Amino acid sequence: MADAAAPGEDDAAWERAIAAAVKNAPFSAPKTLTLDGAVKSTTGRLPSPSLLGRYPSLEELSVAGARLSSLAGLPRLPALRRLSLPDNRLSGAASLAAVAESCGATLRHLDLGNNRFADVAELAPLAPHGVESLDLYQCPVTKAKGYRDKVMRMTKRKEMKKRMRKKVKRRLKMKRMKLVPMKKMKAKWRMEAKGLQDQLSQTKGRGTVKMMLTETTDLVGSGNGCGWSLEAFPPMFFGGL
After folding, report:
1. Cα(182)–Cα(125) distance, rounded to whole angstroms?
2. pLDDT in tens, 17-62
3. Cα(235)–Cα(233) distance, rounded to whole angstroms?
4. Cβ distance 66 to 91 under 8 Å?
5. Whose CA, among 38, 76, 159, 188, lies 20 to 30 Å from 104?
């Protein structure tokens, strides 16, 4: 029986793939590296840490369809925000522990679609981090009853919680606006009308202020409220009244 492939055995193929991917990069320190299908790993591993470690400024890394079964040796990538690893053979908490150690502080989008994660508990290493988008499409775990709720409870969805807090504050603000006593609002409108009338009386000629009760659609957040509206007309409009 042939010996198992040793870690790093695919490094020559990985190095060629990485060189080709960064060849046309606009900067000497690329921010995006796409290696989808470039290498079919015989070891089930990523290249040696030194190969990817050359690019600490990477913000996006995609390694789809590479037959990966382990993420051991994933180097420290302190700027990485998006990691795409679909169509591989990944499973177990150890793989995600490697992700958390490599880029957990900055990672926001993680694509694990069509891998072999079968239990929500395997996702536990992501819990302390701020992953906003987690793709588990076609992973066995998606067939577990209530897996979405379990994943939501496990992972700290910081951005989602922030949005929820903003939504609650907005609703409370609208509720307070709707609860403003109508008597106070009408009193305010009467004062404004009196002020306008006083201003008109001081101008040349006698003006007339007409008060009308009209239907409004935006009154204190209500679509069926009534409010005072003011219209000022010169005396001749009413026949010199």
Report:
1. 54
2. 999 999 877 667 899 999 999 999 999 999 999 999 999 999 999 9
3. 7
4. no
5. 38
Q: Provide, rounded to the nearest whole percent, the portion of the chain with pLDDT above 70.
A: 66
* Of 68, 126, 139, the residue nearest 97 (C-alpha): 126
Q: Tell me if the pTM is above 0.70.
A: no
Q: Phi and psi dihedrals of 80, rounded to 5?
A: -70, 125
Q: How many CB atoms lie within 10 A of CB 169?
A: 10
> Whole-angstrom Cα distance, residue 222 to residue 116?
52
C-alpha separations of 25 from 34, 38, 85, 179 in Å = 11, 17, 21, 58
Instruction: Give, as one character, the DSSP assignment of residue 27.
Output: S
Specify the amino acid at residue 12.
A
Residue range 57-103, pLDDT digits in tens: 999 999 999 999 999 889 999 999 999 999 999 999 999 999 999 99
- Those residues whose C-beta lies under 8 Å from the C-beta of residue 112, and which sit 6 or more positions away, are 85, 86, 90, 134, 135, 136, 139
Q: What is the distance between the alpha carbons of residues 94 and 69, in angstroms, rounded to a whole number?
A: 11
Indicate the helix (H) or strand (E) that contains 155: none
- d(CA 229, CA 154) in angstroms, rounded, equals 54
Phi first, then psi, for residue 59 (nearest 5°) are -110, -25
